[in-house]
Amino acid sequence: xxxxxxxxxxxxxxxxxLDFDDDSGVGIRFVDLLLKxxxxxxxDGRKIRIKRRGLKLTLAIGDAKGxxxxxxxxHGPDKAQMFREAMREAAEALGVRYVEADGAxxxxxxx
Length: 111
Fold this sequence. Notes:
Layout: E1 2-7, H1 12-16, H2 28-35, E2 40-41, E3 47-53, E4 56-61, E5 64-69, H3 72-75, H4 79-94, E6 97-101, E7 104-108
Antiparallel strand pairs: 1-7, 2-3, 3-4, 4-5, 6-7
């Protein structure tokens, strides 16, 4: 089952540009812009939440949690790539799959 988390905002490319400096080195403003509109609930009533604290992203589905880190040395300097890899890491910890398609963020959850 594919769950739509949020649309990717149209101004995300400005914050994600390589020449945009937000003084973090990992694109904190870009990540916050993508995570702000995330509001999703599964059919069984479990809520999907994503929080950022420092460099750590925490993906929660109901009571289960998975964590991913924004790693500039491994996945940088592209801020979008760092975000994708951190989300993949958090999703894999929960046994789900993170996907970006059609201008939106999705989770693919096995039945």
